[in-house]
Amino acid sequence: MTEVTLTVRSAEGTREVRLQGDRLTIGRGDASLVIADEGLSRLHARIHREGDRVWLIDEGSRNGSYVNGRPADAQGTPLADGDEITLGNHTTITVNIRDASQPPPGPQSRPSLLLMLGPVLAAVVVLLGVVVFSSSRPAGGGPDGDGRVVNSVPDRTPDDAPPTPKPSPVVQQSPAPAPTAVPAAPEPPSAGDEDSPAASVTLYRKMTDEQKIAFIKSRAKHVSVLMSGRPYAITPEVAGYIKYWLDAFAGRVGNNGGRKMWSGDMRLVFEEAQRYAPLIINAFEDEHVPPVVGLYLPVIETEYHNVDTENKAHAKGLFQFVPGTARGYGLDPDDRTNVEKMAPAAARHIRDNMLEFGNDSMSVAMAIAGYNRYTQSLLRDLRTVSQIGNSEEKERSFWTLVANRGVLDHYFQNENKNYVPRFFAAAIMGETPWAFGLEMRPLSTYTQRTSTSGGGAPDKPETAPPKSDAP
Hints:
Helix content: 25-40%
Order of helices and strands: EEEEEEEEEEEHHHHHHHHHHH
Shape: globular
Structural class: alpha+beta
Low-confidence stretches: 107-115, 130-201, 451-461
Strand content: 5-15%
Radius of gyration: 28 Å
Mean pLDDT: 77
Distance between the termini: 42 Å
Strand order of the largest sheet: 2-1-11-10-7-8
């Protein structure tokens, strides 16, 4: 296994922290590694390890995370030995990565090293003697002579130097103060690990309603950054809508419901999602659509059942396309259970919706709503709501439609108002699995395909039961 050691420099001093499990969270409060830096968010970033791969993920922090001076990607920035992470107001972390199967350098390796360097050192001594002898002779070519010693190793130029936001302070090396280093929690926490710092102190099901709302607002902000690169304002009312569905999902973790749609065990839903995730991520990235959208649409459409029979709306497949929509994206309706063909089509569908709703901060959420309701109907809904009261005070967003749902048709009130909150609930669970006792990484990190990942083969044919509105 790859061994990862972090040299942490902050106002508290310098300390070394070894990555004990496969995940380490960093922050000012609810984290495995707590650092007293006011510029850090309570849960600021996390470091993941999988085999010989290590990467940093920013948790939607207020001030961002930087690797060698460049912003860390919300979906993960790969880390290499010697990389410098900059966080908060005055915290830098040097990443040290080595193969644990190789013996660490120590005194036992020095004799062999000297033997290897012996001939080289001898040659250097001879060369220096020649240089000194030649420099003592009168110059024969002018004031500079022809015996100059030229540095054969050029200085590093700005073009090939790794960018850093600021030089790291020189710190006198001393033994790391072990008592002050907070050990990393293993990842992922087990279902019984209810007090793990990585699980925000308590599992979601053990939180009070007030704690749940605070948790949802924080995690919904992180999901919105994955969706659009910027956070959405999640009001208490919006958090309440998301909570309704997140409570329903959380209550199904470990319920022994099998793979039954709309009532089965959510652990099995996300096990199936992991199979398809690499294919979906690649398809959505190819269309320049946030992959997180593609990952959680199948959760709220079919709970990752590749349904082979049409429902009453004539939709089928993992992404629930109707025949006309499939034809509109150049596919035969018979291909709707072929996930390798349907994932790119679903990505183009969302891309077209995003273009329809413009470049405002809620365009991605509106595009997701348009996946469930015709975009023209949503545009009509926005016009209807804008005519009520002072339109300048209304944000052009899905949440505005929900707040004014009383003036919209019964289709919106009965189904569409739930669609985006269900999406956020599914994404919060899938991107924060340890808070729900799910033994997996965030779903968006499953980028590597295996022989069984997303092969496009349909599940056993079944008819999708109606979606339940009760949590």
